[in-house]
Please model this.
Amino acid sequence: MRYLCLIYTDEDRLAALPAGERGALAAEHRAWQEALWASGRVVAGEAVACARAATVVRVRDGDVAATAGPFAATREELGGFLVIRARDLNDAVRVAAGTPCARLGGVEVRPVRVPERPHG
Amino acid sequence: MRDDAGAAVRERVEEVYRAESRRVLATLIRLLGDFDLAEEALHEAFAAAVEQWERDGVPDNPRAWLVTAGRFKGIDRIRRRAKFDASLGQIAARLESELRAPSAESAEGLPDDRLRLVFTCCHPAIPPDAQVAMTLREVCGLTTEEIARAFLASAPTIAQRIVRAKNRIRAARIPYEVPERRELPARLETVLRVVYLVFNEGYAASSGPSLVRLDLSAEAIRLGRLLVDLLPEPETWGLLALMLLHESRRAARTSPEGDLILLEDQDRSRWNREQIAEGMALVRRALASRRLGPYTIQAAIAAAHAEARTPGETDWGRIVALYDLLLEVTPSPVVALNRAAAVAMRDGPAAGLALVDEILARGELADYHLAHAARADLCRRLGRCAEARSAYERALALTRLEPERRFLQRRLSEL
Model:
């Protein structure tokens, strides 16, 4: 089974921390990610730029409109994503709980849809 | 003659259904890997039982017979569906090979899979009201209509909640398992919350035309007993104790007209002594474990009341100390409010009122009718009638349950 993990951080809470603590959390997150990649569990993953860099593309009546994003305004910032292999939801949750971002925000865990097999 | 024999078998099948169907279902879900499939297989297995037990006699181990029958019926169904969906053929083949493999289970007897079922129905990834509906349907065997009536919701609403929960279990692949030791405390908390919620629904509903409504409190207690049997943990003992001790006062807490009778005014001779004895034993057991969770502490508070033969003999000092503990474990304004009421009993109304006013000043519980009712009562005891009046009026404006309204109205008019 594959799960998409969308990693959100509450930037306000992060900014309120002393610089030393912030650095330690960043290091912890990096270490978690490296271990995850090394384990072979990761199918894909990237960090992404903050919401201010987001653009939403919509096409209506053939007209392309690109507006400043993000799509949905959330208090927490989407900082990156990972697609991981996990046995089941409990397994995926255990993995997601390992990043400090889960303490300062949250990780949305969604199953990757298995394509339907053709009938007949 | 044949009709009598048929009727006797059907009666026996119904007995077995009442006693065993949930356990059989829990095992079929594990073996077949799907809730809906297991439910269909369960019904087919019982239908087959009616037919075959009349012919062959009731088996020595009905449960094992039903699980085997259900397993075969389930595989049949998948094979039939595999004609339209080739991927199911693999699943059917795997299930069949598991059936042929010698199983350690049949030697020792089937494991009890109900604990897996409970933890799955109460998985945190399922929305809370769906956890309740799923548990009542799958673990307790209530029909959708019964659940709907008990919660004053519509049957389609409940049905939809359950369908969505099952889809979520399937799509997110929530595993059918008992959580690991490490995760157990947090996961158990969710289960206990569901059970206590069901109990409290029943508690509130007991005043009113409840003859037609299902006895949810009894259902919750039954669930509590199941948990104690399958998971001997202090908090499971604590929750069952708490429910039994509350339930023991059922006959005494409402008047024949359906009016509320406060704890201090209840006829204690009408308290159920058996339930109290059982509750007290469970509390002692839970306290002895030295792992004190919120349900255990609340049960200990209820036990302190149950032990007092008259209201005057209540050990308020111990109750305040228990609330201190509860506040540490689950800090909440409602707990603080209940503690304030206990402090008022130990130290006098002025001390209690000071605490209640502190809570209200913090802006907490501004819309909670019981906070204003407590304030009103304490002001009344201090002879501050004008303040008592406005607090009772505030409480009345916020209260929803009819018996509570009548009670507050009476207090107001007595001023």
